[in-house]
Amino acid sequence: MLFVTADTHGKYYFSKLKAFAKENKDLTKKDYVIIAGDFGGLWNEDTVAEDLAPYERLPFTILFVDGNHDNFTLLNQFPITTWNGGKVHKISSNIIHLMRGQVYEIDGKKIFTMGGGTSVDKMYRTEGITWWKEEIPSYADLVEARANLSKHNYEVDYIITHSCDERALYYPPIVNRANKRGKTQEENKLFNEYESNVKYKHWYFGHYHVDGSVNERKTVVYEKVLKID
User: For residues 224 and 177, what is the distance between their CA atoms, to the nearest angstrom?
Assistant: First the structure.
């Protein structure tokens, strides 16, 4: 089975996964929980093994897209390999980073991924230590996405991102959260391309630390762990 949540931030919001595992004892490594950005298990170079250990003990496999609060210096040290049709960083046997602009086929479902988002608190952070400029998708990421989507005729089952397109900002339940975080950000405008050009069944994203349905085909997730399909 396939599930989605978001914004675990390493150990800080790990408890929801621990509780989910306790409530779903039949899950195995063949089941997947996708974290829609801000995984945070790769944050401090000195404590990587300690920080990843709770995730590695989970009975299911963790998949994650990167967010804006992820250590890209650490993340990009892992070799790139291919998994289920797309590029990944394989962090450990049951922790896999789903890279930007990829299309994966998982349990018969096509899933398009695009990480990244804006840290509105970056003025209080230190570049290369608690904030990385790589948080915003690059031109190369966008080109990669177009090439992979084209292979699938711009049609997938699900989109998983950290942030969202610009239109989603103006719908409940995130409109108030978005306003508190400031104006429309660069990635919101970039992601308009996927709303306009990609045929999809449902789009899941995190980043705004709230749960709810934006519309009938778009869901923002935070504390909940939702079953996909």
Answer: 17
CA dist., res. 39 & res. 65, Å (int): 8
Contact 74, 48 (CB under 8 A): yes
E strands, 102-224, in order: 102-106, 109-114, 158-161, 202-205, 212-215, 218-220
DSSP-assigned beta bridge partners for residue 203: 159, 218
Judge contact between 65 and 86, C-beta under 8 A: no
Q: DSSP label at 205?
A: E
In this prediction the pTM is 0.95
pLDDT of residue 117: 95
Rounded to whole angstroms, how far apart are CA atoms 132 and 69? 8
Q: What is the pLDDT of residues 123-154, one digit of tens each?
A: 999 999 999 999 999 999 999 999 999 999 99
Rounded Cα distance between 180 and 183, Å, is 9
Tokens of 229: 């399909």
